Amino acid sequence: MVNVGKKNLVQQLDLILELRGFYPIVAIDTEFPGFIRDTPRNATEEERYKDVKHNVDNMHLIQLGVALLDEEGNTPWPGCCWQFNFCDFDPDVDASSPDSIELLVQSGHDFQEHRRDGIEARRCAHMICVNLFCQPHNSKYITFHGLYDVAYVIKMITRAPLPNTLNEFSDLVWTIFGRIYDLKYISRFFGGLLRGEIGLVGLSMLLDFEPEGIRHQAAYDSLLIGKLFIEMKQRRDNVEDERSESVLYDLEYLIFIGGALLPFPFLPPLRCLYSANVN
């Protein structure tokens, strides 16, 4: 695992760019300071997105984890993953959930070290975008329960608050990520995985896959997500079908038709984050 801070940022991003052509699968995970607004389980997708926007706009990204894999699950070297540590979050003054901060501290996060040696997200946004994202023609991105991961990456790259509407947000998801797969959503259609109602460690246990590293460290979680994606592909050949492509867990029952969001609660979810041509 490579910890990335302000001193080695350029070097590591250059290395990642060199490797991207050989390792087109990019697994990502983020760590952030929890939630200041909770979303009821029965919320509509528009309501859910409003809460995502409120939380992400008012909080700071702490870590971005990245793992590169090829179609066989190989990584550039054993245990290869990157952990981008950001300096923007100050636990003494910034919005956060106390329970989340306690969990992150117990998982090994040193916020003073992040403040001292970490990256300022706004200053490196363009470089991270060019080297890691906005390459949908030759990449696929893998997340687990990735709505907030995706939202924080979009905020970092655009250096702006999230869009006001779910439609605009979905356009950005398609533009920045292209093909993206959410393992929690895919698990709904995978036998023996409790219809997706499990966490990342639970998924790895059900697949008899031994997690490595420390939970809630973004690099290790991203590597686990990538490895689980390969494991699921090897067990079933339809993991990457249209039902799963570009669908994020918690934003599943809306599709774009003619630039309008239309609910289809009784149909199978269909590429709900498809970027339509909106005039």
UniProtKB/TrEMBL annotation:
Q: Does the keyword Hydrolase apply?
A: yes
Could you list the residue ranges forming a coiled coil in this record?
none
Look up the EC number in the record and give it.
Answer: 3.1.13.4
Asked whether the UniProt record includes Nucleus among its keywords, one would answer yes
The protein's required cofactors? a divalent metal cation
Listed under catalytic activity are: Exonucleolytic cleavage of poly(A) to 5'-AMP
Question: Where is the protein found, in the record's own terms?
Answer: Cytoplasm; Nucleus
Q: Which domain of life is it from?
A: Eukaryota
Give the matching PANTHER family. CCR4-NOT TRANSCRIPTION COMPLEX SUBUNIT
What is this protein's name?
Answer: poly(A)-specific ribonuclease
